[in-house]
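Tokens in:
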């Protein structure tokens, strides 16, 4: 498994999420624009067991335990989404089609809903979800997306804010990406 290139890169993405940037629910005016198809992510995640923000750790230094199945879906979005919303603005509505499909080990069972989604396909997708009864959020980042190979990397953790990760609940792993065939994208074999 590969860890995101750096924890600071994750924190920069998390800052944008917790500050208010989000991808809006589909706009009725976007129906004639080119669309990115619905994407389903079937992932196997491991829990990082030795992250230490005080050390300069390489990807090879990170150790994982477990093999947790996790799947989610992102609905179609316009290919040209324009500039990102102002991070200080109120969040835009999240399409209800953004959802976790399968989480048999309950990695995100405490999450009630996604309240921010920044879908920058195929560069990255950043998501934040509310955790029931807490001020913490569940952060999910899909990165290292390779549309030709139908693969992506998923990073997931809890955080109280953009600068404080729950280092005991950092999960990372690879995903198979399945795009809906009706949009002209082939399913991987």
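Residues out:
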């Amino acid at each position: 498994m590969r860890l995101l290139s750096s924890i600071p890169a994750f924190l920069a993405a998390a800052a944008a999420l917790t500050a208010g940037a989000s991808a809006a629910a589909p706009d009725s005016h976007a129906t004639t624009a080119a669309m990115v198809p619905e994407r389903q992510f079937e992932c196997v995640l491991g829990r990082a067991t030795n992250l230490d923000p005080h050390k300069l750790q390489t990807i090879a230094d990170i150790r994982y335990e477990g093999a947790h199945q996790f799947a989610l879906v992102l609905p179609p979005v316009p290919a040209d989404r324009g500039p990102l919303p102002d991070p200080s603005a109120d969040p835009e509505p999240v399409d209800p089609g953004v959802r976790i499909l399968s989480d048999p080990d309950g990695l995100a069972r405490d999450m009630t809903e996604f309240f921010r989604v920044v879908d920058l396909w195929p560069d990255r997708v950043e998501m934040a979800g509310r955790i029931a009864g807490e001020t913490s959020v569940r952060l999910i980042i899909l990165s290292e997306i390779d549309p030709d190979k139908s693969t992506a990397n998923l990073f997931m953790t809890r955080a109280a804010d953009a600068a404080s990760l729950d280092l005991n609940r950092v999960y990372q792993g690879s995903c198979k990406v399945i795009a809906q065939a009706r949009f002209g994208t082939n399913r991987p074999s």
